[in-house]
Amino acid sequence: MKITPSSRILRMLGEIEFDEWQCVAELVDNSLDDFTEIVRSGVPWAGGFKISVALPSPGAKPSDAVVKVTDTGRGMSYERLEQSVRAGWSSNDRFDKLGLFGMGFNVSTARLGRRTRVLTTRPGDDQWIGVEIDLDRIGDDFEASDITEPKTDPNEHGTRIEISGLHPERADWLRRNASNLRDTLGRTYSWILDNQPFELWVQGQRVRPRRHCRWGDDRHVIYGSGASSQKIPAYIPIDETFEPAEACANCGNWQTPDKGTCDQCGGDRLTLRERRIHGWLGVQRHLDKREFGIDFLRNGRKILQWDKRLFDWKNPNDPLGAVDTEYPIELANQGGRLIGEIHLDHVPVTYQKNAFEYSDRGWRAAVDFLRGVGPLQPEKAKRLGYPENTSPLGLLFKGYRRNAAGMRCLVPGDGTRPIHDLTRRWAQLFHRGDSEFQSDQRWWEAVVNHEEQSKRAKLAKVEGVSQNRPDELAVLEALGVNSDGAPDVASDSALVPPKAVAASPKPSKETTQERIERYHADSIIVPELTRDFGIPRVGDLVVETRRLRTLSLRDDNGQPTPALLVQGPGGTATAFLDPAHDVFAKLGVDAAELLVVEIAAILKVKADSDLTYAQLVSSLRAHSLPDSALRMDVVFRQARELLTDVRRMMAARIEPDPGRAFQHLSPDELTATENEMIANGQVMLTQKLGETGEFLLYAPPLFTVKLLEEWPEAFMDGKVFAGPYASLSSPSARRLSLARLSGYLNDIATLVSFTVDLGPQQLQRTRLSIQLLADELVAEA
Length: 781
What we know:
With 781 residues, the chain is an alpha+beta fold. The chain is globular and about 100 Å long.
């Protein structure tokens, strides 16, 4: 069989940069293309659609190491096989296929090894036919050896590619990375494997598509309030068709119709083809530092994954200006959650299939449609004279750019703050295929739970603080201190939500099961405490934790109890918590502390462990509730997240008069603010520093404390913080109310400003300040 070009050229092709997984993917592409043609033809196909990739075994000698890619496709004739292994050959249908044999085949095989055998057979053929391309033996006559193999079953069909003489470093990578290869191919072909009846196997294990952990089609947020409110869905389908264009089958160029010949190569093989963008944009259920952004696909294969270029904007009127990254800005260190999957079958890609031709007008048109031509940030757009960005991405940015817990931003929380670390762990369970985490129900329950706890806390605060007595006594009562300086125990009762009126007790008639069912119907799940509790030496218990709404919790003897653990089948249990019990409402005990005590008691008995209760409880806390540990990194992250919310809300309040706030910046604080803006890609903002309230988002953390103390009436009395100030008639009461807030804020800003390790007592103080300040934040419209 003659092949073109010579072996010297083929060896040079092997020097083209292709990663090992890309080499395998090139061969997989050809099989998927064949499968796709079969499906489109509508012909019934026996044997299924299966691609199997076999890698060198860990113990194989280098001389015996082989890579095999086998499919159950249609097979090829001798003439088609001869074309397929020629470098530079392409089919007439270059626009609807992933791979085209030809150049991709030669690059990938030469990159992996020095000898390639291709065997193929069709249904009804009496043997396998093929070719062996040995780079060490082929001369300038371009002749490769024809090969045949007997066929055991005439209905057998498909193609098999065997690559041997592997390059040592690539053979070593393939030996060690079967799992990584499966994951990478699962991401690359996720759409195809999820939407077509095709199977891909690597080293005997099936490749699973890596699906997006996104919110459901029916989830949404309400942006704004009143008549101007807007419903913004968390999933936006995309299907936009542009004017058709002519495509050249020779070189792949797209151009306006009716020119007769190709602008680039002069060929006349032009066909009128559709130009269409389709797919979706949406919101991930969790924040991630790396895995967010838009996937762009061509013919079902992902060319770009987690691409973030749509989040960047460059002013077209300032060619030398910097590129601004507009998302994520809030909690950028935590990552983002805007995602999408966009098909651009009409946009050409590079030969490595890891980028589109970004100068192509099809790419530019897609970007303009998906994200608009102006900035995503509304204040920046207004400043530069652009209208509101109403593109699909602009809509999602408006509704979901913030990451505050609750329904306003669709972010799970624990009643005080977001639970980002926990939702990331839930996402891992989603990707592992855990059935309980496939829908977004667990995330949604955490959003609802946060809202209920937050409303309960705010209701208690309203009931516990009288606004009709704006004097020192009112402030002292709000602080929980009476006039003689002692804690006011009686006033704490106002912080407890009212209990339902107890019905006449019927202990003789209500069974234990009926009582538990009553508790279950009156409770909601506590997501942050619903998990697997256990330690290796003792065992584990899968616990669903629920918080009562109105009922009082009682044990089997009818006595009030703050927590009740009910064992279920197969190492499961349900824990009920009574938030109105004195141990929570008055003594401030953490629910997790009581829960692990109850779990430790059960595990100790089940395992007949000789560990003490103290050892069990401490081990359970460390293994099962790492987020509750008094660790510097945990408290630091919580402080930074809360400070981000505070600064954003304060920035909105100074917007009518930003100059008044700006004047309080000292020279060193101004320099630090400018440096932070530049580091975050906000170069343009430095040119009009102080003209808007946005500078506060980048000012030093401790400046936030200074601004609160210098201008408290702008932020208190329910504007940013619920605490009273202007409504108090007594100067001493004002000072006390302000000092309370600024003290909390100072603890938080100090920790964020200085990264030195703090002792446990200082960390405990800061964590309490985080909780107390979070309770002071008003609900946003």
